């Protein structure tokens, strides 16, 4: 169950990062409030997952999901570039996440 909670926490990190981007430096009220709500929810779920997962594993997976998810959202919704080097970086991050999961099994 902790892994499911951790994955949801990582996905919420992507949501709050996107909301922060569209808040335009916290000058738009709704995305600013959504950023705070999703940030609190993400941290709460991360905290819950850490009750049974090692700190290094939980935090690395959470930030990795956030990094790769934000990268994908940036490309798909914000028109950010998808260069070969950026794609390779995302693959390396995903490889690290898989290794972290396998090492804690």
From TrEMBL:
<protein>
    <recommendedName>
        <fullName>Guanidinium exporter</fullName>
    </recommendedName>
</protein>
<dbReference type="InterPro" id="IPR045324">
    <property type="entry name" value="Small_multidrug_res"/>
</dbReference>
<feature type="transmembrane region" description="Helical">
    <location>
        <begin position="57"/>
        <end position="78"/>
    </location>
</feature>
<keyword id="KW-1003">Cell membrane</keyword>
<keyword id="KW-0472">Membrane</keyword>
<feature type="transmembrane region" description="Helical">
    <location>
        <begin position="33"/>
        <end position="50"/>
    </location>
</feature>
<dbReference type="Pfam" id="PF00893">
    <property type="entry name" value="Multi_Drug_Res"/>
</dbReference>
<keyword id="KW-0813">Transport</keyword>
<feature type="transmembrane region" description="Helical">
    <location>
        <begin position="84"/>
        <end position="102"/>
    </location>
</feature>
<keyword id="KW-0812">Transmembrane</keyword>
<comment type="similarity">
    <text>Belongs to the drug/metabolite transporter (DMT) superfamily. Small multidrug resistance (SMR) (TC 2.A.7.1) family. Gdx/SugE subfamily.</text>
</comment>
<dbReference type="InterPro" id="IPR037185">
    <property type="entry name" value="EmrE-like"/>
</dbReference>
<keyword id="KW-1133">Transmembrane helix</keyword>
<dbReference type="InterPro" id="IPR000390">
    <property type="entry name" value="Small_drug/metabolite_transptr"/>
</dbReference>
């Amino acid at each position: 169950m902790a892994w499911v909670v951790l994955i949801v926490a990582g996905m919420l990190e992507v949501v709050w990062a996107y909301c922060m981007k569209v808040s335009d430096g916290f000058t738009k009220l709704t995305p600013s409030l959504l950023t705070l709500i999703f940030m609190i929810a993400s941290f709460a779920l991360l905290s819950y997952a850490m009750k049974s997962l090692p700190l290094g594993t939980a935090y690395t997976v959470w930030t990795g999901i956030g990094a790769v998810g934000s990268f994908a959202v940036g490309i798909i919704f914000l028109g950010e570039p998808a260069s070969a080097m950026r794609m390779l970086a995302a693959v390396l991050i995903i490889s690290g996440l898989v290794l972290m999961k396998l090492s804690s099994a």
